[in-house]
Hints:
Blueprint: H1 7-27, E1 50-56, H2 71-74, E2 79-82, H3 85-91, E3 96-99, E4 107-110, E5 115-118, H4 122-125, E6 131-138, H5 144-153, H6 163-171, E7 181-184, E8 208-210, H7 232-251, H8 257-280, H9 287-292, H10 301-316, E9 320-325, H11 343-363, E10 370-375, E11 379-380, E12 393-394, E13 398-404, E14 411-413, E15 415-416, E16 423-425, E17 428-429, H12 430-440, E18 450-452, E19 455-457
Amino acid sequence: MPPVFSRRELLRTTACGFGALAAQAMSVPKSAVAANALATGPHFTPRAKRIIFLFMQGGPSQVDTFDYKPRLAEDDGKQMPFDDSRVIANTGQRGSSQRVMKSPWSFRQYGECGQWVSELFPQVATRVDDLCFLKGMRTEGVAHGPATLFLHCGSTNQIRPSFGSWVTYGLGTENENLPAFVSLAPSAGNGGPRNYGAAFLPARFQGTALGRAGSPAEQATIRNLRRLDDSSAQQRRQLDLIRDLNAEQAAAAPPDAEFDALIDSYELAWRMQAHVPDVLDLGFESQATQSLYGIGERETDQYGRLCLMARRLCEAGTRFIQVTYGDNTANPAWDQHSNLPKHADHARAVDKPIAGLLTDLAQRGLLDDTLVWWGAEFGRTPYAEKNGTGRDHNPQGFTTWLAGGGVKAGFSFGETDEFGHQAVRDKVHMHDLHATLLELLGLDHERLTYRSAGRDFRLTDVHGRVVEPIFA
């Protein structure tokens, strides 16, 4: 029987099919994400337009930074019973004997609010009248992996969208020439890309990673962003051709949100070529501004560059910016199990850049509608781990602070017990913090939902309450 198609005819008629196969291999389409492809918009008038999240990977110790507890010095060295989260998780035993360990650093009061801050953060201490402390934080997960995923995605193990993806899904972008969600120097561990991924949300809402934790800040850029081999007009013609081919293919196939996101990415990449290089170029900043962030100083140069880049992205219209202080080692930066004095090195690296960011935002009038969020996946124990020289993980009570964007300034909410171990008053669960941050952005955490696999999902799952007492 003669063939229905000649080889030449087969190749001619299926050429677009080969392109579709390549595109689908890149986008891994799923029919379940075809709906709800556009941002929903705010539910009510927002107090803040954007968030800068300063992620302190590994968990700084609350009792050595912002949660002053004189009782630790009084009982230093004593063996006392504590409900240790790791011991409970592994053995079920409560009231295990632990050696109380005082802080190696002194505390004093700062600002009109009289907030106690340790000598680890002398520069941030000068900005305490801008800060809103949440000292009764609690979370889920004892290990870094589950707790980090819970911080970013609201779940310890399931594949869920990250906080930044929910924000961009809800609000979209302020500037169509920039990514709406950028993660500066993210870590490859403890969830890695899941911490800035869109999961089952349309792919257009995933974060754009610039650089990686532990690498020079100069690498926090987009490779091959500038294309110099062709003129702008020629590049535009090439993009238009690709767009037309993709549009033909899309018209002949069932709706596919991830394929649409792939097409959108080409358009965004084209627009970024003309706008992003200048945004990421810190050379446009004055020497005085760079010095404010500690750029050019050995200890602060790296995080200072990331914080200044965050301000430039914020000013240019990026909706959610995460600035990670961490590394890609087995033990994340602030994870001092056996060498608590190492906290001093990390504090010196971030103290001046963070204070510089707050000062710069305030001077430019950006702090009023920009919410700065400082925090980690959990805190640390007030006692020595294994009778040693460090502190173990503590999800039962720790400190986070916020600034700007509609929260009370010079305010402290919540309290841990007299050792700084467990939250005892005005507790704020991580679900509550997520709900509150969304509320400040004009999003109702109960209404910000997405249907996947036959059910509606939200960042806070079936939990979360808005912490209204911290609102200005």
